[in-house]
Amino acid sequence: RVGLGAMVESVLGYALEKGHSAVDWSTRPLPEPWLRYAALDVELLVDLRDALERELERQGKLEWARQEFDAIAAAPPAPPRKDPWRRTSGMHKVRRRRQMAVVRELWESRDRIAQRRDVSPGKVLGDAAIVEAALALPANAHALSALPGYGQRMGRRQLEQWMAAVDRAKALSENELPQPGASPAGPPP
Hints:
With 189 residues, this protein is mainly α. The protein has 2 domains: 4-73, no CATH class; 84-176, HRDC domain (DNA polymerase, domain 1, Orthogonal Bundle). Helix content is 55%, strand content 0%. The protein has 9 helices and no strands. The longest helix has 21 residues, at 97-117.
């Protein structure tokens, strides 16, 4: 098993509490029990590092491990994926190029907003909502608001920005539309 909990249990003999591992950590302010949970996870990191370093030394692998860590730290980041919007969950339902353009525009808008707010893109607008809008090609904000994912909780300003993305896609000339492409490597995120 790999993961902090398994490592701490295997190396240090402590079982970490799992009660808050699956909560929404973007919630603010974080409730006090979550803060304690996170602090306990971090508190053991130095002890874990020291124990692993001693074990590598005992096995005569410490220098090798340091070389590996240095190589990993020095490696350049992977290049950005080409057309990451193509990995939108449910993209297999989108067949027409105009619909693909809607997915692209909504995905890119969502990504910018998520980066600005420092939240995961799915918290801003779900993949399913992006695909619904692409398939429906709504004529106006009212039609968009009737689609799943764009309902009551969404404010007027937010709805208008999504509609603007749809309108941008609808305004593209034929030669600006994305080409159908081979499906990206691996499953959608």
